[in-house]
Amino acid sequence: MRAIRVVLADDEPLIRAGVRAILASDSGIDVVAEAADGRALVEAVRAHRPEVALVDIRMPGLDGLAAASELRRIAPGTAVLIMTSFGADEYVARALGDGAAGFLLKTGDPREFFLGVRAVAEGGAYLSPPVAARVIREFAGDRLSRSAAARERIAVLTNREREMLALVGEGMSNAGIAARLHLAEGSVKTYMSTIMAKLGVPNRVRAAVIAHEAGLSGAG
Q1: Predicted structure pTM score
Q2: Which of 33, 95, 145, 187 is the most exposed place for a label (fewest CB within 10 A)?
Q3: β-bridge pairing 52-56 and 79-84
Q4: Could you tell me which residues carry 4-aspartylphosphate (predicted)?
Q5: 202 and 96 in contact (C-beta within 8 Å)?
Q6: Domains, the chain, with CATH or none
Q7: For 93-117, what is each residue's pLDDT tens digit?
C-alpha cells in the first residue's frame, strides 16, 4: 500500500524538523514537501497533491486558516490538519469553518500526529482530545433547540444518507463506512459530498455534530 503523502507547513524550522522526525517513524507516512509560509504551502500542495496538509495555524503571509480555505478550493482531495500550540476556541471554530478536517495541539501526545494524519487521509476527522472537549462544550448549550434544529436539517436526507451520517457521528472513516455498509469507497465519498451539501456544512466534524444533536442511532 502506498504511503500517505504529507506536506508539512510551519514557519519554525525546529518545529518542522521535530514533526518530520515523528512522522518518519511511521513507514506508512511520507513527508513529501515542507513549507515555511502559507503561500509556499499552497504551491507545494499544487505540485505534490498530497493526501494530507499538516498546517501550522500561525504563519507569515497566508496563515493556516486562510490556507485551509484556499486548499479546500484548489485541492479538495487534500485533507487539511491544523496544528497549533494555541488552544483558543475561536481558532477551533474558524479552522473547522474554513474546511479543516482536524485540529492537533503541538503540546499533545506525539501519537496524535499518526492518528490525525491517518484519520483525515482516510476521509475521517480528528480532533485532539482537549479540542474535542471545547467543541462539545460549544455545542452543549441550548441542547433542546439544537436537537430540534438538527432533526429538521436531517429531514432532507434519505434513509441511506442518515445511516451513513450516523456512522460519521461514530467517527468512522470512508473506508470503515464502506466496509460496514458493503459499498465501494468511491460511493461513500459521493454520498458524503451529497450529505454535506444537503446539510450545508463544510466538513465531517460539523456533520458529526449534527448526527449527535439529532440523536441518530449509533451517534450518541
Answers
A1: 0.68
A2: 145
A3: parallel
A4: 56
A5: yes
A6: 4-132 (3.40.50.2300), 141-214 (1.10.10.10)
A7: 666 666 788 888 888 788 889 989 9
